[in-house]
Every structure is written in structure tokens, then in C-alpha cells.
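Hi P.,

Sorry for the delay on this. The queue was packed all week, but I finally got your sequence through. Input first:
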Amino acid sequence: MAVTLKRDGDFAVLTLDRPEALNALSFAIIGQIGEALDAVAEDRTARALLITGAGDKAFCAGADIKELRSRSLVDQKRGAELGQRVFAKLDDLPIASVALVNGYAFGGGMELALACTFRLASANAKFGLPEVKLGLIPGYGGTQRLPRLVGEGRALEMILSGRTVDAGEAERMNLVNKLIEDDLLEAGKAFASTFTRYSLPVLNFARRAVQRAHDLPLHEGLRVEAELSTLAYRTADAEEGMEAFEQKRKPEFRDA
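Then the structure:
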């Protein structure tokens, strides 16, 4: 299997395990990623998902170009829809996801990182959407997610030039949440621990409210926020949190 899924304490860890090919994405591997994400969703015991690539050269160098040659238009559209559908599973997970970008994150690899809730990067990380150099454009969500993160101008510059962005620039343009100098997996667990100690249902409501902001005008987004905040208020964890605040103690959330 080129994709492995393991538990590490409270966290599910998905690893792209094809280092000899810089963890490039074939359609079969995209399917394996989808199966792993389904398993995480069904398990419901992990408190966050961490995604990384095997080896120290690449998170994921992008699509397997050999598979893209000589495909019919129907097959090409189905391939793009497969990548979009699988990566969209990250939006629907009941837990947040963190991409741990070690080395290259190009093309579909960068699009996978973009689909995660957060992105941490090592000092040698490099990001790019080089499809234009092949006479193509990003097809797994890059044209939609990148502008939402860094703004239309910066996104268009990257997409139309196909240029590579190093880790420092990625952090400055808000593509990366944090640069990591030490062990990336341990740093990812520490980063996720800053929010996983809270109520998972409430964290999920918060993610949903923010995600809807991309799709709705402000007044509609505020309506969604009001509805989700009301649902959060009705949880047992909300009652525990408010009671603990009044009693000046640490709350004991039970994800209920």
C-alpha cells in the first residue's frame, strides 16, 4: 500500500508512502487516500488527522504525469472529479486535519495540503502549482482553495507563473500556519493538541461556520453562525464549560 493509516495516541496519521517516486499521486493512490479518510470518519475516536509524506524529500510531488497522457476528455474530467471528491472528504471529516509538509508539495500534493485545515512546514518545504508549464491548470481544487487562503492576486501569480514558493515565503503569505525546525510529526501533534483538548462537537461547529463564510454573503453567513452557535450552546460540553468558568476550574469535556 502506498498509503498507510496508523494511530499515534489521540491522532490518526496518514502517510503517503511512496518515497522512491517522491510520493507522487496515481489515481489508485488517490483512491487509497479516500479509503483512509473514510476509515477516519467511521472510527470517530481520533481527535485530529495528521497527513505527511514518507522520506525527507517530498510531502507529495504531484500527479503521476504518465497516467495523464493519452486520456480521453471524459476520463480526464473523471480524474479531476475523483481528486476533488477525495480531497473534499477532508472538509467533511468531524475532526480537523494538519498537513505536515516535508520537502516538495507540488501540483496535486499542494492541493492535498490546501484541503487540510492547517499546514505546518519544515524549513526545506517548497510549494508550487506548476501545471501551466505542462499546458494544464490545477484540477484538484487548487484554483479554488489557494485564493481563499492567500488572496486572488497572490494565487493568480503562483498559478499563472507556476513558480515555486519556499517555506519562508509560504508562511509570510499565510499559505503555511507555522514553520517547524524540529521533528515535524511531534510538532504536528503538539500543534493539534492546542485545540483537540476542547469539545470535538463544538470544534466541528466552529469549522463549519468558518467554512460557510466562503460560500455565502455576510448576512447569510451570520445566520449560519447563529444556528451553529445555538447548537453548540445545547451541548453538555457547553454547560460544563460555563459551569467550570464560574467555579474557576478546568473544564472536563466529554464530546457530548
